[in-house]
Design a protein that fits this description.
The chain is of the alpha/beta class and 436 residues long. It has two domains: 364 residues, Divalent-metal-dependent TIM barrel enzymes (TIM Barrel, Alpha-Beta Barrel), CATH 3.20.20.150; 56 residues, no CATH class. Helix content is 46%, strand content 11%. An eight-stranded parallel beta barrel has the order 5-6-7-8-10-12-13-14, surrounded by four helices. β3 and β4 form a beta hairpin. The structure holds D-xylulose (XUL) and cobalt (II) ion.
């Protein structure tokens, strides 16, 4: 069998003292961390769009990525030829899962029917490689934002024909995900928003989006797809405002349109920061509604203000993320998808490996530290103590709903003036440093 990355060995764990750049320093797939292997905790996935399709162009210049296996054409043959390359990548990195958009894996045809046909053929090829390697699909999605027909949205387009076209694409992408045993299906509404309100009926567009998602839920039932639906929040880019702008907006939308029982959130770090939130904030908002489902792992750059999708190599970030994941009991149908791309300057195939090795090691380290922090219980105890006035007496009455303004007025008039207790933020920041 041809090797597409002949100079890259299978990446194995060598431990922290290794100076081999093609080895893991922290990710040891079979190592147990509180009752589960690292592989089971982390559920790493590679993004087909970044690994196989990202040419590393930016708004100022053409792509730089060297992809000797790719002839650059939008043909079915070229699409089929990428599949073994991707599976060699998964094998060598030891990444167990992957994610795709329909248009990453297969090209548009001359008609919609031909487009669907192309998809089915590549899905067959993927199924064969999954079978041979044991690799699994984490989630699939439909690309409803790249083609010019979706310039004004898909489910929120002012054109009903575009809506129908998008629906047709989702039908097939959902069936493809089902056929490949995907445990999830994602909606990221890249252009489901507006460029300007001057030409937009926002209320109508949001209602259309809800209709669209209900149709997907109904179709999943019909075909027996039991995977989890996810919405992936992002505030803007490419739209000026995206309706799924952050976790709170998504949850409100899902509740308003009776979709909450069918959806969880796929939270992406760089989207959180674009929304003006930390990743921990977005994860906690999702977790609070029982909707923390999956993660798109990456990071932004504080000096650039856009979705740079860099690889997550920051130990603090990975630790904070894994604390939230452990607190909800781990992933079920979701996982950690590297929705991350190399810099335009890192254009050689081996850079794909350095990038994923760094991300996997950061999350492995984050997992171990998060587990120690949670097991030690110091942060948990501090927070529990901080709120202990609600555990009994008047606080318990407030939480139980048995207090009123009247009863609290009577209480407050008799009670001593409230005393401030320190929040100890700096002390706790020092404590976090002790773990890292
Ligand atoms: C875009 C983004 C998408 C989604 C899938 O910012 O994150 O790649 O993850 O459509
Ligand atoms: Co993403």
């Amino acid at each position: 069998m041809a090797e597409f990355f002949p100079n890259i060995p299978k990446i194995v764990y060598e431990g922290q003292n290794s100076d081999n750049p093609f080895a893991f320093k922290h990710y040891n797939a079979e190592e147990q961390v509180s009752g589960k292997t690292m592989r089971e905790h982390l559920k790493f996935a590679a993004a087909y769009w970044h690994v196989m399709r990202n040419e590393l162009a930016d708004p100022f210049g053409a792509g730089t990525a060297l992809m000797p296996w790719d002839d650059g054409s939008e043909t079915l043959n070229n699409a089929l030829g990428r599949v073994p390359v991707f599976f060699e990548f998964l094998e060598k990195t030891g990444i167990d899962y992957y994610c795709f958009h329909d248009r990453d894996i297969s090209p548009e045809g001359n008609s919609l029917a031909e487009t669907h046909d192309n998809l089915a053929k590549v899905v067959d090829e993927l199924a064969g490689h999954q079978q041979a390697t044991g690799k699994k699909l984490l989630w699939g999605t439909a690309c409803l934002f790249a083609h010019p027909r979706y310039a004004q949205g898909a489910a929120t387009s002012p054109s009903a024909d575009v809506f129908a076209y998008g629906a047709s694409q989702v039908k097939h992408a959902l069936e493809a995900t089902h056929r490949l045993g995907g445990t999830g299906y994602v909606f990221w509404g890249g252009r489901e928003g507006y460029g300007s309100l001057i030409n937009t009926d926002m209320k109508r567009e949001v209602e259309h989006l809800a209709r669209f998602l209900h149709m997907a839920v109904d179709h999943a039932k019909k075909i027996g797809f039991e995977g989890q639906f996810f919405i992936e929040p992002k505030p803007r880019e490419p739209s000026t405002h995206q309706y799924d702008s952050d976790a709170a907006a998504c949850l409100n939308f899902l509740r308003e349109y009776n979709l909450l029982e069918h959806f969880q959130l796929n939270i992406e770090t760089n989207h959180a920061t674009l929304a003006g939130h930390t990743m921990e904030h977005e994860l906690q908002v999702a977790a609070g509604a029982g909707a923390l489902g999956s993660i798109d792992a990456n990071r932004g750059d504080e000096l650039l203000g856009w979705d740079t999708d860099q690889f997550p190599t920051d130990y603090y970030l990975a630790t904070k993320i894994m604390m939230e994941v452990l607190k909800v009991g781990g992933f079920t149908k979701g996982g950690l998808n590297f929705d991350a791309k190399r810099r335009r300057e890192s254009h050689e195939p081996e850079d794909l490996f350095h990038a994923h090795i760094g991300g996997m090691d950061a999350f492995a380290r984050g997992l171990k530290v998060a587990d120690r922090i949670i097991t030690d219980g110091k942060f948990g105890e501090f927070i529990a103590t901080r709120y202990q006035s609600f555990d009994s007496g008047i606080g318990a009455e407030i939480e139980a709903g048995s207090a009123s303004l009247e009863s609290l007025n009577t209480y407050a008039l008799k009670a001593k003036a409230p005393q401030l207790t320190s929040g100890r933020q700096e002390r706790l920041e020092n404590l976090l440093n002790d773990y890292l």
